[in-house]
Prior knowledge:
Radius of gyration of chain B: 21 Å
Order of helices and strands of chain A: EEHEHEHEHEHEEH
Oligomer: heterodimer
Radius of gyration of chain A: 16 Å
Shape of chain A: globular
Number of domains of chain B: 1
Number of strands of chain A: 8
CATH architecture of chain B: Up-down Bundle
CATH class of chain B: Mainly Alpha
Largest sheet of chain B: none
Helix content of chain B: 55-70%
Number of helices of chain A: 6
CATH superfamily of chain B: HPT domain
Distance between the termini of chain A: 32 Å
Strand content of chain A: 15-25%
Number of strands of chain B: 2
Largest sheet of chain A: 5 strands, parallel
Amino acid sequence: MAGFDIQNIKFLVVDDDANMRQLLRTILSSLGVKDIETVSGADPGFAMLGNFQADIAICDLVMQPLDGIEFTRMVRNNADSPNCYLPIIMLTGHAEITAVQKARDAGIHEFMSKPVSPEKLYSKIHNIIETPRVFVRSSDYFGPDRRRRQDPKFKGPERRRNA
Amino acid sequence: MSDEKLEIINPPNALKQKVGTGGPGAVDLEALERAEQVIAGMTDSYLEWVVEDLKKIEAAYNALASASGDGREEMQAVFQVAHDIKGQGGSFGYDMMTAIGNELCRFIEKSKKSGPGEIEAIKLHVDSMKLVIAEDIQGNGGKQGEQMLAGLQKVCDKLIS
């Protein structure tokens, strides 16, 4: 894994748990990141993007009143979204398949299960930098391409061939 | 739906321009190790946070135990704190807090009601979390941790099956 210098990347942390915000800020700072904003929810997170041009957002899945999926939908689909392509790392204690699918279908880039660690977080950041994702827009989805690998067993319609 | 229009977009990639490869600021194994040490140095802060979270979950439990309605809202309040506890413990070496928090979250998700059995099971989880912190049980807690989790799982399985 090539070591990237990520000090100039701007991060937005969206989590309703103040302790998690502090933990994530500390991890990012200790990895050299200088510009970090933290907010306590989806609405302030979306509003913050108007003033702070984040390069990557880290967002908790389970939040009140709006969750991380709502935040992702706002970023991807709202007409006034400052950056609909913003890479989003979804953080959750719920590493269950349904939660993964929901987050994926809302348009996240990476999924990271808690507890967090510097190594885990950096590997997600590394993936985002190393492998930029193309976006797809269909009638019911806008976000990073959900098919990262060619699946020889894929039986669905090959819509990408005609795109 | 095979004829549905699918638009492929290559978004502008500003990240690569902002990132350097190698050099003194690069995140290598040593940098990760240093970051791990910084987190390990936050254990005292974690222990302060978790004491507050334990007060919160106890208050949420008391509200559930004395709830007059169906208790769903009060159960959800317990879930929220358990979710926070679960998310933090393992980052600071308190893996048992994450494991018990996980067990409690899953139990609440699967519970269809909040009867006396469910309330008692929640109390057992809260008491177990308090014990882990009071006795400073770090890591997976060895044999004691294994027995604690097995006991909690048994209680939960009985109620949700």
